[in-house]
Amino acid sequence: MKDNVWMRVFWLYGLHTFLANIFLALGYYFLPEGILRDSPLTWAANLAAGPETPGGEMALTLFFNLLVMAIIGVGLNLISVKGFPQGYFVPIVLGIISGLFLGTNSFVAMDLADISFRDGMAIGFTIGGLEMLGYIFVIAATVKLGIYQYQNWWQWNEKVRKVMPLREVRFSKSEIICLVVGVLMILFAAYRESFGIAGIS
What we know:
Layout: H1 5-30, H2 43-48, H3 54-76, E1 79-81, E2 84-85, H4 89-104, H5 117-126, H6 128-141, E3 148-150, E4 161-162, H7 173-196
Parallel strand pairs: 1-3
Antiparallel strand pairs: 1-2, 3-4
């Protein structure tokens, strides 16, 4: 799997989807509706929804989605612990969080109770789902950046091994394609969120 970028994508997407579904059910059955709406987890969403123009909203959305979240995933991929790229934790954590948000109807910009199932699925797949898939493509494509190798999850100040200089990292053609596709997905999801959501809701 480590040498096949498409297998990394399928593995990460499957794990993310599994966790999102599990935590959706847990949130729906065991947590109050809207419990996360005013939590610190919605800070970025509240800020991105602030601008009055679609262009301003898209700019802020791209700032968080492309320049913050994607860079966090790529940056974490510089570190590998026992062969496990740390960027993989981004879709794992986001699977848990997105499942809880869906299950508790805690989104900032919309109330899921007012949207039909079909429209909700369309919005979810073409915005949040596409955004997440874009993160996964970017993270899967940059696994080779793992130049800092750790053999222990707990002793980060010891036993680090730098396997090569960053400038010597070489990506395959498939990884470059995967990276470009991931960025395009994030761009399109931001456009849908800022300009296209009115056509569905």
